[in-house]
Design a protein that fits this description.
Distance between the termini: 28 Å
Strand content: 35-45%
Radius of gyration: 22 Å
Number of helices: 5
Helix content: under 10%
Mean pLDDT: 86
Shape: globular
Low-confidence stretches: 1-22, 25-44, 323-328, 473-479
Length: 479
């Protein structure tokens, strides 16, 4: 059995196997047609980076021109669609920096030293026609560049204003999606893990911002802000330091934006689980913020609890016909494909390598129903209904007669809800290696998942009725 795929590889001068897997996967969706079988062959387009480039973290593809933007350690690259270098590489670091002060050079007594800049956010803003880059240094401030010349770049916003601190040294996820009235067009939804900076320099854990150009300068504004009401969520000062949440993936679907996280089962627990967090696009106060756990399980015993990568994609026609995802609305035609690993019991986030990893899918129909039930349970004060005490300390669900449907966009009565019932995923396949990247596309009406592993392998699977037909190829020889 054979399928067409579009493949391209960016290779570093060092043996960064995981990065190669990730970039092969992302560029699979956008590159030139180069591979026609389930086994990936050796005919790859490639761009060989200088050995001084130590790591690649992010890639963005311009959906109109096909140009590729690559963010690495201390470098930003612009490649044409055929992977020829379009501009000279842009140096983003090292920079003289300290996490104890604002990026402004004045008023800081802490010692600054050269620090590498890791790429944390790399997106194309089609409305302003710029490339947005945010790094791990300078409190996560961002820059914008012209898509045709990334050397022409501008800093975004005032160095002393926390609203412009988008990224950080820990996990960061961001994407553009529709914002609330009166925002014009799309806004940046972003989430970041607290990285031990001083609390007065720590912004919101999750927010939506507008990237705007005013008087020739770029800056961020909240998508909505009016007094104490704004489009953002911040943890309590105590929880920022004690309740670790890692952001894995983000996407927009219907009227909601979603973030995939890994976090403690509760602030007091030592066990971790994966959750989906969502907010309504029309919610001007993020009262609709709700968390629901995900469960990926094989049989009765093996539970894969820690998400490592994900992508929203189409469900297979076989699954549609088997009524696994109902009958054809937008909600029912999409599924979230998530790779998981299993952690050692009582070991926090320590991975049990003997169990490998797994791929599960979650239909958006099931996801939406689970969120609706979690919200209703809170308003009905069901026994497993809770509110996120790491956002509002001591908050509890209150009984109230409020109509809650699938499009509910929040209420000040019961905000920041924590669902107790997990969404059960469709188990697809278990793998010996740890999956580090997931990409999903369609080829000849078949749903194809391309998976990257931590040991440099690329696995291509055809999703058929929530099962997989698998082909493998190793990238190790090409690194």
């Amino acid at each position: 059995m054979s399928f067409e795929t579009n493949s391209a590889v960016i290779v570093t001068g060092q043996r960064a196997k995981t990065w190669v897997s990730n970039f092969l996967i992302f560029l699979t969706l956008f590159g030139t047609e180069l591979c026609r079988s389930l086994e990936v062959n050796s005919n790859f387009e490639s761009y060989l980076l200088n050995d001084k480039v130590n790591g690649l973290q992010l890639v963005a593809v311009h959906h109109i021109t096909g140009d590729v933007y690559v963010g690495g350690t201390n470098v930003l690259l612009h490649l044409m669609a055929n992977l020829t270098l379009a501009d000279d590489p842009v140096t983003t670091g090292p920079v003289t920096d300290t996490s104890q002060c604002s990026p402004a050079v004045f008023g800081c007594t802490a010692q600054r030293r050269p620090v590498d800049t890791l790429s944390k956010l790399l997106l194309v803003d089609y409305e302003l026609d710029v490339v947005l880059f945010c790094g791990s240094t300078r409190q996560g401030m961002c820059q914008v560049s012209m898509p045709t010349d990334i050397g022409r770049r501008w800093s975004v916003g005032d160095e002393t204003d926390v609203i412009n601190y988008v990224a950080g040294k820990e996990s960061v996820v961001g994407f553009f999606a529709r914002g609330p009235w009166p925002s014009k067009g799309r806004v940046l939804y972003s989430a970041s893990t607290y990285d031990d900076r001083p609390l007065n320099l720590s912004g919101l854990q999750m927010s939506s911002r507008r990237l705007v150009r005013e008087s020739g300068r770029y800056t961020f504004r909240m998508a909505y802000s009016d007094g104490d009401r704004h489009t953002g969520v911040g943890f309590t000062d105590t929880s920022k330091k004690s309740y670790y949440v890692e952001y894995v993936y983000g996407f927009s679907h219907g009227n909601f934006s979603y973030f995939l996280t890994t976090q403690k089962v509760s602030p007091q627990s030592h066990s971790f689980e994966s959750r989906l967090v969502r907010v309504h696009h029309d919610d001007t106060a993020f009262f609709s913020y709700t968390e629901v756990p995900l469960k990926c399980q094989q049989g009765m015993n093996t539970i894969f609890n820690l998400a490592t990568a994900a992508q929203l994609g189409k469900v297979s026609d076989e699954a549609q016909n088997a009524h696994l995802f109902a009958d054809g609305s937008e909600d029912e035609e999409k599924a979230l494909y998530v790779s998981f690993v299993s952690t050692v019991r009582g070991g926090g986030t320590i991975v049990d390598e003997t169990k490998g990893s797994a791929l599960c899918s979650f239909s958006m129909k099931d996801v939406i129903s689970a969120f609706t039930k979690a919200i209703r349970d809170c308003f009905n004060r069901e026994s497993d209904a809770r509110r996120a005490t790491w956002i509002v300390e001591g908050a509890k669900c209150q009984r109230a007669k409020i109509a809650v449907d699938d499009n509910f966009f929040g209420s000040g009565i019961n905000s920041f809800i924590e669902g107790g019932e997990a969404i059960a995923g469709q188990f697809i396949e278990q793998f010996k290696s740890q999956l580090t990247a997931v990409a999903v596309t369609t080829q000849n009406d078949a749903v194809i998942a391309v998976l990257g592993t931590n040991d440099g392998k690329v696995i291509k699977t055809k999703i058929s009725n929530s099962r997989a037909e698998i082909g493998r190829a190793s990238c190790r020889e090409r690194v």
